[in-house]
Design brief:
The chain is α/β, with parallel strands linked by helices and about 425 residues long. It has eleven helices and eleven strands. The strands form two sheets. Strands 1-2-3-4-7-8-9-10-11 form a nine-stranded mixed sheet, sandwiched between helices. It has a two-stranded antiparallel sheet with strand order 5-6. Helix 5 links the parallel strand 7 and strand 8. It is globular, with a radius of gyration of 23 Å. The structure holds S-adenosyl-L-homocysteine. S-adenosyl-L-homocysteine (SAH) binds next to strand 8 and strand 10.
Length: about 425
Amino acid sequence: MDPNKLNHANQPEQGKLIRTRPRTADARPQTRPRTEGWTQLTGPDGRPTLQFASPRVKQPPVHLADLTLEEREAKVVELGLPKFRAKQLSKHYFEHHTTDPGQMTDLPKDRRDELIAEFFPPLLTEVKRLVTDDGATIKFLWRLFDGALVESVLMRYPGRITLCVSSQCGCGMNCPFCATGQAGLTRNMSSAEILAQVVEANRVIAEGGLGRMREEGNGAEAERVNNIVFMGMGEPLANYKRVMNAVRRMVAPSPEGLGMSARGITVSTVGLAPAIRKLADEEIPVTFALSLHAPDDELRDELIPVNSRWKVDEILDAARAYFDRTGRRVSIEYALIKDMNDHGWRADLLAEKLNARGRGWVHVNPIPLNPTPGSVWTRSEPAVTREFVDRLNAAGIPTTLRDTRGKEIDGACGQLVATEQDRRDAEAFAAAG
Ligand code: SAH
């Protein structure tokens, strides 16, 4: 779109300090992003460091879930076994969430252990499980093969079960309000490590670990994860290839994959414009979410360091193009932060920028900020939150206030991080064998 067509009257001018009251008589102060209690890594230019590439470290061993069905078949044949063994192994993993030789009675007994060692190297070891909401929310802490720690959060809602998955160990995007970025990026997760979070969650559900179970039988299917949100640790589009292979396997019918609906999968990004455009070309209609958090570049430059590369207008254009290619309505994520990004004029500017790109293509999901260390990071007052939502709705932008689950167990958006305590627990766990 032509940015000149936008009315920039209420947008602060380039290069100036953020203005407090561009249009309304609303005299609320402007708090600026800053870190407290930790120091944001910065480069020689003084700007927050961005890590797009994963450090070159040892990769996890190849696992069945890293391979397409064809590749699994080729490997089985290489081992001197008929092709159909690949389907059997795949079924055990994706349908019955098991890697236990005792349960694979359809495989030749003398080759079972070898097949399992070949296809199912252990990827995730559960270190800790925190449960809240009367058992309806579980946060898992996983230890990976190299000792790296990641988390996923499993949530039961009426009629659906959602898993929030991690895509990287740590994150290189360095957003000052998000706990995950504080230690930088350790490495990309493999496709199989990403998928294993779902398989493990399905196993826990099948074992009755997520509260009440629906009766199986009488035509009712066993319960399992039916929504996946890439809102755990990491920036999924910075680990593009592995994330997309994981997504392909999530939607592939069994025995190739999990047979999930693409609509039930949400890929959330901080705004890597070229990768958003690539995602639109994949022809996998996943739900696309953009973590915008500010409609003006002046604030977004400080709030989301990667905004120095791809500006608000460019990522909104990419988001609109995603809708054009897929027909899937885009979600805009907006964490409401007291006196920082919650001013009425920002709601108006956001509505204006979205409406300038057409109608019916987008909705906005504001969520009150979840506390991370640091006192400038406070959630907006309820009245301010309401006004922000009302202004967007009044401008014709469908807007629904969301709240996140699991705050009491530090399992909510932006709170996933391996703490010192987690590290100690993981070490004690590993030492105990
Ligand atoms: N890197 C991806 C996905 C991970 S974070 C992304 O940025 O979209 C998932 C969502 O949680 C993002 O919208 C992110 O901006 C938001 N988030 C991060 N910290 C938060 C916090 N303290 N409170 C509320 N939301 C937060």
